[in-house]
Specification:
Blueprint: E1 3-4, H1 5-8, E2 14-25, E3 28-33, E4 35-36, E5 50-52, E6 55-63, E7 66-71, E8 80-85, H2 87-111, E9 115-120, E10 125-129, H3 135-150, E11 155-158, H4 162-166, E12 182-185, E13 189-192, E14 207-215, E15 218-225, H5 226-247, H6 254-285, E16 294-298, H7 303-314, E17 321-327, E18 331-337, H8 343-354, E19 356-360, E20 364-369, H9 373-382
Parallel strand pairs: 1-4, 16-17
Antiparallel strand pairs: 2-3, 2-8, 3-7, 5-6, 5-8, 6-7, 9-10, 10-15, 11-12, 12-13, 14-15, 17-18, 18-20, 19-20
Bound molecules: zinc ion.
Zinc ion binds near residues 43, 97, 191, 193 and 195.
Length: about 375
Amino acid sequence: MTEKLYYLDSHLQEFTAKVVDCEYDERGFLITLDKTAFFPEGGGQQPDTGYIGPARVIDVQEKDGIIRHLCEEPLPMGIEILCRIDWDVRFRRMQSHSGEHIVSGVAHRLYGCENVGFHMGEDAITIDLNIDLSWEQLKEVERHANLAIWSDLPVKAWLPSDEELEHMYYRSKMELKERVRVVRIEGYDSCACCAPHVNHTGEIGIIKLLDSQRHRGGTRITMLCGQDAYWDYVRKQESVTEISQLLSAKRDEVAPAVQRILKDQQAMREKCDKLSMELVRVKAESVEKTDGNICLFDSVLDEIAQRELVNQLMEKCEGLAAVFCGNEEDGWRYIIGSKNIDLRANSKAINEAIEGRGGGSAQMIQGMSTGKKEAIEASLKTLSL
Ligand SMILES: [Zn+2]
């Protein structure tokens, strides 16, 4: 059995241990020490990384009480060697994990929720609760969780005797076969857990709930703790500052400023639509009636206005009423209508004439053309169907 130093001191960053085994593995070398502060993957927490002497540790797993460190190079057996875990990563994980216990404990105490799922991802932590909580209720959970941090309470982790266990309440997801280790934050939470935790709640620094969504009849919370929450605040502060400068609004007034812009944009869109229809009317009026085809080009009309222009031009010609919107670089979006000609039946000939691709109904076809303006105009002038 490997002696688990992380249970004796969760803040141990460096230690000396003896290499007792080194096996080749297709991913590297599996090194076993007589004792270790490297936490193996478990309890929802990722394995520690770091160094055993010069060898980089990339994974740590426990099986039958033996902890194996997957390393990138072999080490001689029997030597005493200095080991160092990546403390920054481990400490962030402890902040997150202890924070998760507090939030789950508070949700249980305030609303009777059970934690039915927990994931510590690279971007955030998610907790699944079995009861659907409103955002107002979750804000209350967050406030109480931060009160626990400000009270700087001790976090006690120990292996209670069977008798002690029988008489105490603790959260546990499954029937545990091995001896149960309990992590207790007095007044907030007791939970069966095998992972290392902070010594005092103050080390967590801050707990911030970011989001919640309904999940299997309950609630999935997305949250951040400690350094991760701090860096999230830094990024959001920068983002809000940039937005406030762009809007010339105070930082806490960016939302109403954006609402004003959206309202203005809507009014502008309505005005633009009206002007487009006016432009369509003027353009249609300026075209003489003809027995042949009409061909117009435009760079600004949207598809609705373009279709309206085609409708109005169809009344002015016996042949094709064609409107091309766009330019020669990006191509033309075309709509062609006719009162007399079956466009679906003739769409191949029309598309060939205008270097286009598209189709539609007997009365109207649409598509894209990559032709030159002058060539399209010339082809349509002489095209007779
Ligand atoms: Zn835990």
